[in-house]
Amino acid sequence: MYWNEKYECMPRDELKELQLSRLKNTLERAFYNVPHYRRLLQNAGFEPGDLKSLEDLKYLPFTYKKDLRENYPYGMFAVPLSEVVRIHSSSGTTGKPTVVGYTRSDINVWTELMARSLVTSGIQKNDVIQNAYGYGLFTGGLGFHYGAEKIGATIIPISGGNTKRQVMIMKDYGTTVLTCTPSYALHISEVIEEMGLKPEDLNLRIGVFGAEPWSENMRKEIEGRLKITALDIYGLSEIIGPGVAIECPYKNGLHVQEDHFLVEVIDPKTGDVLPPGEKGELVFTSLTKEALPIIRYRTGDISRLIAEPCACGRTSVKIGRIEGRTDDMLIIRGVNVFPSQIEHVLLQFGETEPHYQLVVDRVDHLDVLEVHVEVSEKMFFDDVRSLEILSKKIQNEIETTLGISVKVKLVEPKTIERSEGKAKRIIDKRKI
After folding, report:
1. What's the pLDDT at 381?
2. 87-96, 162-171, 386-395: the lowest-pLDDT one
3. Whole-number Å distance between alpha carbons of 317 and 308
4. How confident is the model over 145-169, as pLDDT tens digits?
5. What is the Cα–Cα distance from 238 to 236, expressed in whole angstroms?
6. Phi first, then psi: what are they for 425, rounded to 5°?
7. Structural domain boundaries in the chain
8. Which of 126, 163, 358, 382 is spaced 20 to 30 A from 304 at the CA atom?
9. CB of 272 within 8 A of CB of 146?
10. What is the pTM of this model?
11. Could you tell me which of 231, 194, 109, 232 has the C-alpha nearest to residue 414?
12. What's the rounded Cα separation, in Å, for the pair 402 and 197?
């Protein structure tokens, strides 16, 4: 089922012509209206008229999060503030917030893309969507909200938190779709059990989860606990918000909305563009944004391009599941470690819960990685010998995966802090 078949199934040649035309417009908008881009492009010896083909994209300079911070709050806007109808921003917990503006046209495009995304995931007009993404400056809540209204679905704008109330509403209001972070979906599944309910007592059928990396095993865990189809959605506010890419029910990659965004995968160290299939950092260029055009934005997200056709009939390129970030990648004794690698291992063991934290410290000048993971209620009351065997099995499996030694600490059920948004997976105590 398609929301806009013309663009979702557009022949590749036709799509590339559209992309080139829109890229030229974006370059002109950025060059003539944003001093930062004009300076960058002139330093690179490139002017909008030099763009002859999509292959020329690789000659354009990258945009980094620090560029948005250094031009805080409105220095990257390509329109006067009088044309901006909404502002979103990051939390700014690691520095100045990144501020994103939207013209009325930008909001209409975003709403269209979210409508497409929801329909791509199998959501229909008759669904009741419980939107547990945060509302406010974060883009998640309002992004889903307007997309759901666009397709005519019923949306419950509950935001995150107050989980028992979430479950009560889920049951009483007949919620059929849950949207939130995957870690919060797992927490909701626990609370459902604590309240003496079963998935069969609810009407849930689909979950659309994003805003943090999650593994295939976590998908299986969520689907098993909530008896739903769990699908991945991707986006970030600097590009537009959620709806940049979405999985269809075939679950073999996230379809990129290519008529509005150009996607590249680059080597994070050299900046060289990588071919489909090779893993690297995602880079996006907007094609239709008015208020905040973005050129070759380095997301920090690690993924790969999937160019093979999809059985759903959409012609867009896909990206693989986000496997980590360049900036939350841990380097332990010279080895690159992503939390998702460890999560994948942990969820292979039925005796553990999908809640874990990675604690990194430096002892005698040597990095030490300790993996804290909750055991199941049944396993916790088992004998000490069984716990020791489980701990050793997990340790061996992680060490085989990562190629470095680790310590595994099994902890009591429900002792690792739960999150209503993005889970805190890493505690780095190193003083470097």
Report:
1. 67
2. 87-96
3. 8
4. 999 999 999 999 999 889 999 999 9
5. 6
6. -95, -25
7. 1-326, 330-428
8. 358
9. no
10. 0.86
11. 194
12. 39
Q: Is the distance from CB of 373 to CB of 358 less than 8 angstroms?
A: no
Distance CA(121)–CA(147), nearest Å, equals 12
pLDDT tens for each residue of 157-212:
999 889 999 999 999 999 999 999 888 898 899 899 999 999 999 999 999 999 87
Q: Which two tokens stand for residue 256?
A: 């990129």
> Is the distance from CB of 414 to CB of 374 less than 8 angstroms?
yes
Q: At what angle do helices 216-226 and 339-346 cross, to 10 degrees?
A: 50
CB atoms within 10 A of CB 260: 24
Sheet containing strand 177-180, edge to edge, reads 154-156, 128-131, 177-180, 206-209, 229-236, 241-247, 254-256, 318-319, 305-306
DSSP H/E element including 114: helix 104-120
Order of strands, edge to edge, in the sheet holding 297-303? 261-266, 280-286, 297-303, 324-325
Tell me how far CA of residue 180 lies from CA of 147, 183, 209, 411, in angstroms.
15, 8, 5, 26
- Residue 111 to residue 4: CA distance in whole angstroms: 13
Instruction: Write down the CATH number for the domain with range 330-428.
Output: 3.30.300.30
Helix ranges (H only) for 181-269 are 182-194, 216-226
CATH number of 1-326: 3.40.50.12780
